[in-house]
Amino acid sequence: MSLQRTIRPKLIGPLMLAPMPEAKAARHLGAASGMVVAGNFLYVIADDELHLGVFDVRTPGDGRLVRILPGGLPDDPILRKAAKPDLEALVRLPPFENYPHGALLALPSGSRSNRRTGVILAVDADNSLNGAFLPLDLGPFYLPLEASFPALNIEGAVVLGTELVLLQRASRMHPQNALVYLSLDEVLRAMSSTDSAASEPARVHIVDLGTIEGVPLGFTDGAALPDGRIVFSAVAENAQDTYLDGPCMGAAIGIIGTDGQVDALHRLEPTQKVEGVHAAIHGGLIHLLMVTDADDASVAGKLLSAEIPSHPMTRLG
């Protein structure tokens, strides 16, 4: 699959945290892996944290961390990687039982047995967190997915009408990306009852994104458009499986049509490992916000912006 054009994102700013008197160095959010924009709030999940990052989308340099999971994580990078909850996707849920203003749902990758705890975070009418959060054991929820994906790696989620769509990421050993469609009503009933067991997916749609320098492009996040299309981010990470990290050979932003086919695929230059994306249509353009993961705890994630055409002239083949 060919890339249609090049996107050169603009830097809005690094994901810095508000200074603390006892801190010896500037604090930041590094491994950004998913995002939700709600009003002026920018919510960012990080795959190696037990906290949610909360920023002002206009000036992301003065954020704060909100704890959403108990316990602690080692400072050593290898030990931290083994112990982390690997929260990879963040999605806004519509109002449902016990959540009159909706909620944020943080989803883990599911790539290991200890990476199957999700979190529901209630929000108020002004889109702020109301302080209530509920950890969820998603082991039973992910169990049916393992039958389809031996290398399970959920990286994104979007709400499309009556369905929750999960984005399964490709790897070198298992180069299939997929859209996994679930009944939103069933998911919300399970969430509100704290019973995370779910039925089989309504359907699974395999998506081929092609390769960059021989490395498969794999989903890293998604955002729903009002017309039912999905804007997605993808990277070509040269790693053999879903556990190991590897060099990022390239990154792209694309659009999936309502029929599940890829309508557009645009390469990001310079290469940046975008793992979270937000999209909104204004006029004939899709305005994008993106967050990055540098795979280096000492480097702050970045908030980027870009624009792409809303309606490509021709479909990719």
How many distinct domains? 1
Spans of at least 5 consecutive residues with low confidence: none
How many distinct beta strands?
23
Helix content: under 10%
- Largest sheet, strands/sense/barrel: 5 strands, mixed
Report the C-alpha radius of gyration, rounded. 18 Å
Please explain how this structure is put together:
The chain has about 325 residues and is mostly beta strands. The chain has a single domain (about 5-310), classed as Tachylectin-2, Chain A, CATH 2.115.10. It contains three helices and 23 strands. The chain has helices at about 75-85, 140-150, 185-190; strands spanning about 5, 10-15, 30-40, 40-45, 50-55, 60-65, 85-95, 105-110, 115-125, 130-135, 155-160, 165-170, 175-185, 205, 210, 215, 220-225, 230-235, 250-255, 260-270, 275-280, 285-290, 300-310. The strands form six sheets. It has a five-stranded mixed beta sheet, with no helix packed on it. A four-stranded antiparallel beta sheet has the order 2-23-22-21, with no helix packed on it. Strands 3-4-5-6 form a four-stranded antiparallel beta sheet, with no helix packed on it.
